[in-house]
Amino acid sequence: MNVQRSIGLTMPPFVFEIERFQLRLFAQAVGETRSIYLDVDAAQAAGFRDLPALPTFAFTIGMPPQAPFDLLEALELDLRGVLHGEQSFTYFRPMCAGDRVRVHRKVVEAYERKGGALQFFVVEMRLEPEAGGELFCMARQTIVMRALGDQQ
Amino acid sequence: MSTDSRTGPQSWRVGQQLAPLTLGPLTRTMLALYAGGSGDHNPLHLDPEFARSAGLPDVIGHGMLTMALLARYVTHLVPQTALQSYSVRFLDMARVGDEIICSASVQEIFENESGRLLQLQLSAARGNGEVLVSGTATIALARSVGADA
């Protein structure tokens, strides 16, 4: 997709259900072994509703499980050339297993560098409870697409 | 100067270096586990043949895995409930075999409407010192009271 035309692209919102099983798998994958992230009783004793999601799990919430690369597809980006440039999260309150999170994503900036050899897309993401109420998290991601033509 | 970070953020001073932590080295198994746990199964991280078709010598680590490892370091310094924001730039691609050396220093202590805050400057570097990820984390000093007593 043309870089300029991608600005304002808004993905259809979807709901991500946070499951204990996936939080434990994610914790294992990043080497997190503390009991509040694995054991529901320990999490509740620490004041959480249920197992808390680790800080960067918010990025996983932003990918629809059935179509994790839907945004890249909407931007018509080849997975082979996609890099992650920047990522930021602002946290308002913990997300836990059992939460149903509504995910909003929008391309808010897009530009080219090096004569079009690199394209940048800045995506803003908002995570809120499906049932309404105080926001969980805001995130901002910079996707970098490198030209693949001369690599083949 | 590296200082014992177990004393807690209340006692940290601007400019203070916190004790670093070496994680990894990254293995193909870690990348596969992360692909499963995170849902990011881009073959660039899993399939060497696909990576070569993208002009890379081998698979590369998920940037988000490095960011997650650096977050694990941060949440050992302060409880996750004190983490208000976390931002990084990805500067280089992580490769299989890379150790991830996490380090932090206290950049700023300030106050705003939500209370007293501390900003950490963060980095995740390879064993040879090349920086893979640099970033910042904003920590609420007031909110962490009692959460990690």
Roughly what is the average pLDDT of chain B, rounded to an integer?
91
How far from one another are the termini of chain A? 21 Å
C-alpha Rg of chain A (nearest Å): 17 Å
Instruction: Provide the low-confidence segments of chain A as ranges.
Output: none
Characterize the largest beta sheet of chain B: strand count, sense, and whether it forms a barrel: 6 strands, mixed
Can you lay out the helices and strands and say which pair or pack?
The complex is a heterodimer of chains A (152) and B (149).
Chain A: H1 3-6, E1 10-17, H2 20-29, H3 40-45, H4 57-61, H5 70-74, E2 82-91, E3 100-113, E4 118-129, E5 137-146
Antiparallel strand pairs in A: 1-3, 2-5, 3-4, 4-5
Chain B: E1 2-3, E2 17-23, H1 28-38, H2 48-53, H3 63-77, E3 83-90, E4 100-112, E5 115-125, E6 131-140
Parallel strand pairs in B: 1-2
Antiparallel strand pairs in B: 2-4, 3-6, 4-5, 5-6
Structural description of this entry:
The complex is a heterodimer of chains A (152) and B (149). Chain A has five helices and five strands. Chain A has helices at 3-6, 20-29, 40-45, 57-61, 70-74, and strands at residues 10-17, 82-91, 100-113, 118-129, 137-146. A five-stranded antiparallel beta sheet of chain A has the order 1-3-4-5-2. The mean pLDDT of chain A is 95. With 149 residues, chain B is an alpha+beta fold. Chain B contains three helices and six strands. Chain B has helices spanning 28-38, 48-53, 63-77; strands spanning 2-3, 17-23, 83-90, 100-112, 115-125, 131-140. Chain B has a six-stranded mixed beta sheet, with helices on one face. Chain B is elongated and about 50 Å long. Chains A and B meet through helix 2, helix 4 and strand 2 of A and helix 1, helix 3 and strand 3 of B.
